[in-house]
Each structure stands twice: as C-alpha cells, then as structure tokens.
Amino acid sequence: MKRIKFYTFGCKTNQYETQAMRESLICLQEYSEATPGEKADIYIVNTCTVTSKADRNSRRQIRNCKRENPNSKVVLTGCLAQLNDDAKELSEDVEFVVRNNEKSRIRDILANPDTMKAPDKKRELYTPLKISDFQNKTKAFVKVQDGCDNHCSYCKIPLVRGRSRSREMEDILQEVVRLKTKGFKELVLTGICLGDWGRTLKKRLSLSDLLREIDGIEGDFRVRLSSIEPNMVTGDLIKVMQASKKICRHLHIPLQSGSDKILKLMNRPYTSGDYKFLIKKIKKAIPGISNTSDVIVGFPGETRDDFRKTISLIRHIMPSRLHIFTYSARVGTNASRLNGRICPDELKKRRITLEELAKRTSYKYRRRFLKNKSVEALIETTKDPDTNMLTGYTDTYVRFLLNGPDNLMGCLTNIKVRKLDIKSTFCEY
Q1: Do 232 and 299 meet the contact criterion of CB atoms below 8 Å apart?
Q2: By residue range, what is the domain housing residue 86?
Q3: 339 Cβ neighbours under 8 A, 6+ residues apart
Q4: How confident is the model at residue 122 (pLDDT cuts 50, 70, 90)?
Q5: What is this structure's pTM?
Q6: Are residues 300 and 236 in the same domain?
Q7: What is the CATH number of the domain that holds 178?
Q8: How far apart are CA 315 and CA 219, in angstroms?
Q9: What single DSSP character describes residue 336?
C-alpha cells in the first residue's frame, strides 16, 4: 500500500479541495495517509500564488518532501501550478502537475500519469468536488463557488482560477446534511468569490437564497460566511443574517485601502465612503456583529496621505480583526506595471502602525463582552499550545482561552468572558 501525504497552502478553498482529494484517494485500498514524521511514497502539495511569499513557501515544501524521501514522487497542484505546463520549470523535484480543474481526477491521474493529457487552456472545465468529512478539524468548509470575474489590478486569482462558476444548490445542501450528520458544529461557506454564488446558474439565484435553504435544515450547527466583497453584501443578505439563528454574526469584508485614489488604481468597485456606509448599515441591523477585514500596505503610488486615509477609515469602522498584507507584485497583473513602489523601510513602518491599530480595535471590540453576558462558542478539539487551555471561537469570531473540562471539545456551548488583555480573551464555562 502506497503512503501519501498532503500539504496545503493558502485559502479555505484549497483546504476544501485537499480534503476532497484525500477522500478520493484514501477510499482506495492501494493508498494510506502517512502519519506525521513518517515518510511517504507520494507527496501532494496544494499550492497558493497570491503573494511571492506564498510561492516561496510552496517551493520550499517541495524541497522538504524530497529531503524526507528522495525516492518519493511529488505531485504539484493548486494555483502556483496552474499556469505552468512543465513540472520541471517549477522544480526538478516535481514529478508532474495537476491543474485546479483536474483535482477531481486525481485518482485516475495517479493511477495513469503517463496517459495524462495536457488540458485545453481555452476550456473552463468545472467538476465540483465533494466531501463527507474534514480531517482533524473542528469545523468543516463547504465550497460553493469557484473563479472570479472582478479583476482587481493586484490579483492573480482570475488568471489561475478562471471565471466565476457556481455549484448547484442541491449538491451543496446534500453536503451540508452529510457534514452535519458527521457531527460538525460549524460549517464555513467558502469560494473564490463567495458573494457571486448563484449568478451563473441556469436559474439565477443569490447567496441569500442559499442561506435561507441552509437555515431551514434542522440540527444543532451554525454557519459562517468566509470573505465576501463589499459590493456583494446586499440588503437581502443582511436581512437573512438578521433573522437567522444559525448564521454567525460575523462578516469578513475586504477593504484593501481607505484612499479612493488607491481603490481606483486597484480596480475596486466602491469608494471609502461606500465602505463606511455599509459597515454602519450592517452594525445598525445586527447589533454586536463583528466586522473583520483585509488591508494591503504599500500598493504602488500609495503616498503617506493615502496611508493616513486608510488609518482614519480603520479607526472609524473598528474591525475586530484585521489581516494586513504587504503589496506583492504578481506577474501578469496590471498593478505589476505601475510605478511608485514604496521603499522597504517605509513599508515596514506602515505595517507596524497598522498592526498596533489592529490590536487596539480588537481590544475595544472584545471589551464589550466584559458584562457577564453569555456568548455562544465552539470549542476546538485541540488545546492552545502556549497555555494548554481549551480554545475556540465565538459566533462573532473572537478567539478565546477557556478553563473547562476536555469533554467540551467539539461542542457548541455558552461561555462567559472574565478578563482580556491586548492579545487574548479569557473565558470560563
């Protein structure tokens, strides 16, 4: 029996697709998954290419696989692999490349690699993957959509994921029931452009329609939305979340910049004023909801005044968590041809400034829970490595540390916030 190992980089969509490939292969008697520290015969590296750092991490993992077992075969898939026909151009250690739209064929490809035909780049094949479990995870991801039609000037994703495609609603609902029955208490809906779900179906639908159907499924579980674009947070979506008892009170809405000049250069379809108004509307409709966001530091042409506008907007919207990315030029994108690069020292200063602000806005949001109010929480099945305490997330996506019995692991329960500091939130059962 051949031993196989998976390594996954990047987004929730990639993590979902790795699970689908795992289930496709491990169900066969000729493959078994290697344990940590055990050498494998086949390594499947599911890559990301959203930044140059992501590229480096993927290439480093390829080398590590070959060091662990020089006689193994390394199979490269994911977004770094998508635009490269020749495996040897990526690394001499790669046996062959499996494109994103071929992940559903991974079992046949491994069985007959010599007969694998190069895909037609002009075709956008879309065979939705399926899962029935999510290995070693407390929550499961449900991929509902792939591809993106937005073409932000800094983003390579449309080049490697293709146009937007939606998975059929019935297929999604069946998977939700499978995972709920398996015992998962949180299901995260994910896609490359989640808010675009339903637009490409024969009978055009919206993400709100899908959420209504999922909300009607009986069972003790909750649903979280992954990242959704500002222009796709509709009034109907807000109403569905407002009325639901299953959908988490949390929205991750990328901002990227608080400067209208930079947003235009990024080809983002909103202004800073639009974003500010949207967050105000959401918070008014759903009291206590947390908004988290993404910001890019150092986009070409970003002046200190542009950066100050970003700081000002962050202070206004007060995100409970902020993901900060340093701009990374991606070959083939419009932004890679822009002038006005920011020097490394200035980039570092701006990033540190944003990181300090993010700590303060997180603390201010979390402080509201110091009122002995119970909050719903999902307890992770692994403990915090630094404190050996139970950990998990509230429905508003606040990570906490908890003194409590181990039998709470994997459960949805109510907890109380007792104290917090600038970094951590401490609760008790």
Answers
A1: no
A2: 2-115
A3: 300, 301
A4: very low
A5: 0.93
A6: no
A7: 3.30.750.210
A8: 39
A9: G
Number of structural domains the chain divides into: 4
Rounded CA-CA distance 44/3 in Å is 11
* 122 domain-assigned: no
CA atoms of 416 and 401, how far apart (whole Å) = 11
Instruction: Pinpoint the alpha helices (H) of 91-244.
Output: 106-111, 157-161, 169-182, 207-215, 235-243
The CB density around residue 96, as the number of other CB atoms within 10 Å, is 18
The DSSP annotation for 375-417 comes to EEEEE-SS--TTT--EEEEETT--EEEEE--GGGTT-EEEEEE
Whole-angstrom distance, CA of residue 238 vs CA of residue 246:
14
Strand order in the sheet with 186-191: 165-166, 140-146, 186-191, 222-225
Contact 170, 185 (CB under 8 A): no
Ramachandran assignment for 162, one of left (phi > 0), alpha (psi -120 to 50 degrees), beta (any other) = left
What values do phi and psi take at 42, rounded to 5? -130, 130
Instruction: Report the DSSP pairing between strands 222-225 and 94-98.
Output: unpaired
The domain boundary, picked from 80, 115, 150, lies at 115
Are residues 219 and 172 part of one domain? yes
Residue 129 φ then ψ, to 5°: -80, 160
Residue 121 lies in a domain: no
Residues in the chain: 429
pLDDT digit string (tens) for 393-411? 999 999 999 998 999 999 9
What residue type is 193 in one-letter code? C
CA distance 124 to 165: 9
Residue in the block written with tokens 């701009």 = 327
Tokens of 250: 């949390």
- Domain boundary pick from 368, 390, 412: 368
For strands 165-166 and 140-146, give the pairing.
antiparallel
Distances from the Cα of 305 to the Cα of 270, 293, 325, 381, 413, angstroms: 19, 21, 19, 45, 46
In which band, very low, low, confident or very high, does the pLDDT at 36 lie, cut at 50, 70 and 90?
A: confident
- The residue with tokens 């293709």 is 162
